[in-house]
Structures are given as structure tokens and as C-alpha cells.
Amino acid sequence: MYQLTGKRILLGVTGGIAAYKAAILLRQLRQHGAEVRVVMTHNACEFITPLTMQALSGKLVHTKLLDLETESAMSHIELARWPDLVLIAPSSANFIARYSNGFAEDLLSTLCLATSSPVMLAPAMNQQMWQNPVTQENLKKLRTRGIIIIGPAKGDQACGENGLGRMLEPEEVLTLAAKSFETNILSGSRLLITAGPTREAIDPVRYISNHSSGRMGYAVAMAGIEAGAEVSLISGPVNLSAPSRAKLINVISTAEMHFAVMQEVSSTDIFISTAAVADYSLQNIAYKKIKKSSDTYELSLKKNPDILAEVAALDSPPFTVGFAAETENLELNAQAKLRSKRLDMIAANQVGQGLGFDSEMNALTVFWGTGKKQMQKASKTRLARILITLIADRYNEKNINKTH
Question: 10 Å Cβ neighbour count for 262?
């Protein structure tokens, strides 16, 4: 029901009696697969203790903007880059006023200004405070900036009054948080995605491979599903669970991945090649374990099929997106690959220094025709959704041009 598996949610808690609901919400978010970090304001700590939220989240709770004990481990900027969604529940009238006017006087308000992730507020306050024209003006300003406001609900309040102002129940917040990831911008489209490494056998116990974890490809597959597409995922050997709504095809070698792609591509609208495919395989595979005999041993390699180039060269190719993992000259090498393989788009990333292979974080530079978009360091799930949005824009634009 809820597509929250693997999602990173930063749960902000502000001061108010509804803070107790944040504990219930936190537990439900985690039960549905989300990874949650909690940031609490000073006033929130008066209503519910950080220890409670730490026990429920299994993570250190952040309460201070300048905390010397945690700043070296994760600065407020790094924390702002971490989430896929910033969810503030409850969001007090005071916090709404400060946020709408750009204040950054504590950790939570600073994070909201520093993040590029979507921000969702679940207001909770006295019904008269909710109706106040100042509060409504502040909410209007936030909505015009793309901030998502959910609720409030109507009912009895802790102050004894009745009216609009109650925070939505945790189950309702959970549902709306999950729905916020569903864009449906690729409804009716069929996506074919390759992910992970391939392995080229040397003998029955050894192989040639690379450090790809498959995280980027699996994140792109999930983003495609959230965009409303029908997704087929061809995966090399990884330790990841595929999205439940994806058609998963497991392969090991480049030859197997090539065969699977060519079997599926005829019914594909968009092909996204995130897999780190081995360029070469063994000329001759030993059918028995090779025994150590001399100080040196030579392997004779042959070039593997270029799956990406072959798809792009089809008579009626799908919209074709490649990936380029580079250690140097990122833009030059990516642009050359874009042109030589006649791709519609290419996403390039620098490998190393905590980015790319076997990391939860990445940074991408995407190229197409004469266009370019830089995506700053963020979680791969966050980057995948930005990338899918960009692909949808270019894919729809190409289809419109075809009809004119």
C-alpha cells in the first residue's frame, strides 16, 4: 500500500501537544520501510523527549544547530542533503511564521532553507491561531514556494475548543507522505532498466567484475514506478530487493544481459542503462579451477557486445539513456559517449571520494543535445527522481516534435 521502502525521511518535530503523534508517525514510517532521522526544536523537547524519538528511530536525534559532537560526523548541510522528504509533523504556528519569513535560527529552520528535497508540513495549533490572517498569509507564501501543506483536521483541541487546527492523524500523514512520491509523469510508458555489475567467468570459482552495487539502477526503477511507468529491471548480481511492482530479470554475464535486453527492448519506450557492464570477457573459460603454478598468469580477453550502442542503433530505438562513470575528464568523456553512441541522454558521475560505486550518495551531470543539468550530491533515491523527471520532459518533448 505504501511505497516507502528505502525512502529517507527527515522528520521534524516542533513544539505543541500534538508532538506525541510524531512518535506514532515515526514508528509507522519505519514499519513501512522508511529510514527516518529526527530533528526536534527546543520547544518540541518540552512535550516529548529526544530519548523517546531516538529509541523509536534507532538513530541519534538532532536538536542543536551547532553541536560539536555531531557536526564533524554530519554537518547541517550534509543532513539537509540526506532526505528524500522533509516532513514536519507537527508544524506549529510559530515555526510556520519563521519558515515563511526565511529565518534560520535553529537546526530545523536552517535545514528547511538548505535542502533541495520536498518539504511537507502538517500544521497543529489552536483553531483561532489557524484562522488568524497572519497564519493564513504565511501558509500562502509557503504554498507559492512549493511547500506541501497537509491538513489540519477539525475536532476537539487540547485547549478545550473545537475547530480546524488539529494535526492529521499519523495514518493520514503516512498516506500523504507516501503519495507525495507518486508523480504519474510517465503513466502508460514502458521502461527497461539495466542495473548492477556483470560477472565474466575465469574458471568455476573466479570472475572479472567491478564495484557496482546496483543502488542507482534500483533507485531509478523505483522512481519510474512512482512516475506511473511499467518497469522491467534487468539486474546483475546485487544484494538488493527489487521494487515490488517491477518485472525483475536476473542475469550474471554481459552476454546474458545482452540477450535479456534484446528480448525486451521491442516493447520498450525508454531504455535506461545504469548497469556497469564488463567491456571484456574471457576468450576461453577454464572449466576446472586454475591452479597456482607460476609467478605470472595471462588472461586473453575479447570485447563484449555494446548493449547500449546496439539499442540506440535499432531501426526504431526507444528513448535511450546511458550512464558514464568517470575518474577523470567527466564532461569530455560523457559528451563523447553521448555522440558516438547516438544517445538521447547521458548521466555522468565522478567515481570515488564517497560517490558512485557502492555508495548511497551520488552526484550527476546530465547531458543531451545542447542541454546540460548538474545534480549536486544527494541520495541516489533523490537523484533518481530528479533524473526520471528530466527524462520524462525530454521524452515527451521528443514525441511532440515527432508529431509536428
Answer: 14
pLDDT digits (tens, 9 = 90+) for 285-339: 999 999 988 899 999 999 999 999 999 999 999 999 999 988 889 899 999 999 9
Reported as type and span, the H/E element at residue 149 is: strand 148-149
Q: Where are the domains of the chain?
A: 8-179, 190-402
Active-site residue, from 55, 158, 159, 290: 159
- 301-303 and 280-282 strand pairing: antiparallel
Burial bucket for residue 329 (CB in 10 Å: 0-12, 13-18, 19+): exposed
Walking along the chain (404 residues) 10 residues at a time, the average pLDDT comes out as 80 95 96 94 96 94 75 65 93 96 92 93 95 97 97 82 89 95 92 97 96 94 95 97 92 98 97 97 95 91 97 97 91 94 94 68 91 90 94 90 63
Provide CATH code, domain 190-402: 3.40.50.10300
Instruction: Determine the straight-line distance between the first and last CA of the chain, rounded to whole angstroms.
Output: 40
Active site includes 112? no
Specify the fold of 8-179: Rossmann fold (3.40.50)
Q: What is the pTM of this model?
A: 0.82
Asked if domains 8-179 and 190-402 share a fold, the reply is yes
CB 3 within 8 A of CB 225: yes
